[in-house]
Amino acid sequence: MSRYSELQEEYFPNLETYTLAITRAHGKNHPETFKVHELFNKIEAKYQAKEDVSSEYQEIRKLTDNYKIPTDACPTMEKTYNFLSELDQAYSTEK
């Protein structure tokens, strides 16, 4: 099993909840969280269809300034960005 597949199996179930939660907790001050949630849903759907998700990770990197944790981030937002960053790195390494 590839590193990306391992991380996907571990992180995707939580990220479904986390990406939505951060829109509710931080959407007002961080509107990019809505797009991050949308892009994660695209990644999940495209990955299941065995489609390339490089462009979605690239867009998340831009939106989050390379997964930079905002100073007002809650632990869930921090975990979300860390999980997405690890997934992105693993995916990029396998490409």
From TrEMBL:
Superkingdom assignment: Bacteria
Name used for this protein in its record: Iron-sulfur cluster repair di-iron protein, ric
Organism: Periweissella beninensis
